[in-house]
Design brief:
homodimer, 371 residues, 7-stranded mixed beta sheet, two-stranded parallel ribbon, 16% strand, globular
Chain lengths: 371, 371
């Protein structure tokens, strides 16, 4: 079964094979694995261990995002969040439930967040200490201009938190040129193409030290993860880690390195997008976004305007043909969602388009002409 | 390699084999797996879905403990914690960092927490709303009388939180007779004999509903996990789960059921303890605890009183022989720690004792007579 969802993604067999071992996470043989994964993540964000730390956290991406908010934004502090879609809504809820205030910045449907609007909103409210945004918005498929958004906040003297969950490992990220960034959050199971169970933050060491003891949560305190990880000779997880999941990520990172790092991976995802976008048009369906703003991570296709359309039936027909796509709606107009990431290539997307054509026929839907 | 640590434990090959699949966690085929694991955990605590919910949480046991404290103890609320060892210290830190007050109840070294002392401490401080304790204390190896401790709190009109991380699945637990219990916390990777990455709470449904919206953390809110899990037709995780880890647990639960449930598993762990305790005495070493209080989960053995003793060297010599034990001290007197749980039987412990005898000889240590 090929998972064509925006994560957890299809993984390669050698990644899953790395799950088949038991580990004692405080064994001397485990420390080098932990240290190696942490070290190899940093260059993917354009930094080194001189200035930044990469911090693994058990759990899902949401845990890392809440941890970053708790660690870097004081209780009662204020964040500006561009409302780019579902994951911006989730970021907002994570912040509000832990007692931080959120100022929402409207963003037009299918548009990129505007750095000038960010600058204006920050100028209008000096109490906003942080900009927090979603780099690649899974609900819409839009990739936002992380560097320009962060720069707008930096120019206004504010700090930045980036939800890069569905971006990290493929989309460009150079924290060495983004001194205003407090944290970038991501997981193992999106563009890094490993299995779920681990989330990560990359953050400046001096900020982690400065914010020690502020999180009001031992579990979700990145400063404490950092101080524990840095213990001489025995840095490791604070609590029992998903050790098998870490080992799989180590293999997945080797595959990413062999593919030429994020630029190589991005090239493949772009090829996936081209194959799928072209194919969708060729069978008479309509992508939700124009090519100019359609990102290479996830793509939504408008549901056919036909009474016989049934998303779950369509998903089931595709599944019989070996492709699994999302089975729920997450856009203003009904659409079906297809992930472009994971251990898949353009040939898989051409095959998926052919399967979609058959599935539409199976539903008795006459194809429309491309828009 | 046989892991003889108190978790993550040695797993059976069929458990690890269940990790080798990719899952779409919002696929219709995944829901039954989620529902099945939740349902099969409840009878292990003596309850059913009529009254109680089992709630999976991504991450480690600490996450579930903090979540239970946040969910059931109001901010500023007070917990009584019997100071039974390292894990009671951790419980205390988890509570204090999220703004709950802890009253410490001293417990003698190598002794069980005394229900009468609990009753007296609760009588002395009406502001204490909860008793929170560790059922099986990993640092000492002492198993406490969970039913009697909970009953003492219940008789005083207080609520109870039980850290059953290293107990659940083997030690007796009948929540149907413990109406004062708000939550029991545990993980997949101890007596359930699966791999790490998932923690769980079992809690009364009416209490979960009553405490909605109090956790001050979306990630660590058990009431929200519950309301999401109960959604008709599509109950699942709130955030990306470690899907492979859940599938492994499903296989591990089938193995537990085949072993006769917790009583069958406990009988094997007790046989492991007998084999190891007898063997340790036979090679002239001294267990830290008398048999009467030594629990069947983890056992500490006094380090030989010999200048040539070196814990890491001893661990390394055992590892060469296929046995991995803990490589750090966690008791007042130096001792080495051996887990009695996981997919191991008495024959493994007899073999481990023989390996220890060789390792001591390798260190040049003359064996002492048994105490």
């Amino acid at each position: 079964m090929k998972l064509m969802i925006p994560g957890p993604v299809t993984t390669r067999a050698e990644v899953r094979a790395a799950l088949a071992h038991d580990f004692a996470p405080w064994d001397r043989d485990f420390y080098p694995l932990y240290a190696s994964v942490r070290e190899r993540l940093l260059p993917l964000a354009g930094v080194s261990g001189e200035t930044h730390a990469s911090l693994p956290l058990q759990g899902s991406g949401h845990f890392a995002i809440e941890a970053a908010i708790r660690t870097f934004v004081p209780r009662g502090g204020k964040l500006l969040v561009p409302m780019t879609g579902s994951y911006a809504n989730r970021l907002t809820r994570l912040a509000r439930e832990c007692g931080r205030a959120v100022v929402s910045l409207p963003v037009g449907e299918g548009e990129r967040a505007d750095p000038r609007a960010v600058a204006a909103a920050l100028a209008a409210d000096p109490a906003i200490g942080h900009l927090a945004f979603v780099y690649s918005e899974t609900s819409s498929g839009v990739v936002h201009d992380a560097a320009a958004l962060a720069a707008a906040a930096g120019a206004a003297g504010r700090r930045v938190i980036i939800d890069a969950v569905s971006a990290f490992g493929a989309l460009p990220l150079d924290l060495s040129a983004m001194p205003e960034v407090d944290a970038v959050l991501f997981t193992a199971n999106k563009c890094l193409e490993s299995v779920p169970g681990l989330a990560f933050a990359i953050a400046p060491k001096e900020r982690l030290i400065a914010r020690a003891g502020q999180a009001e949560s031992w579990c979700l305190d990145l400063a404490d993860v950092h101080s524990h990880a840095e213990r001489v000779g025995a840095g490791s997880f604070r609590f029992t880690p998903p050790a098998q999941v870490l080992n799989a990520l180590s293999v997945a990172l080797a595959l990413l390195e062999a593919e030429g790092g994020p630029p190589g991976r991005l090239a493949r995802y772009r090829a996936n997008l081209r194959a799928f976008y072209d194919g969708v048009l060729a069978i008479g369906l309509t992508p939700c976004l124009p090519r100019a703003v359609q990102g290479p991570i996830v793509m939504n296709v408008l549901a056919p305007d036909d009474p016989r359309w049934d998303l779950q039936a369509f998903v089931d027909l595709l599944k019989m043909r070996g492709f699994l796509i999302s089975n729920f709606y997450d856009t203003p107009l009904p659409s079906f969602r297809v992930g472009l990431i994971g251990a898949l290539g353009p040939e898989d997307y051409r095959a998926a388009v052919a399967a979609m054509d058959e599935a539409l026929a199976g539903l008795g839907i006459r194809k429309r002409k491309a828009a």
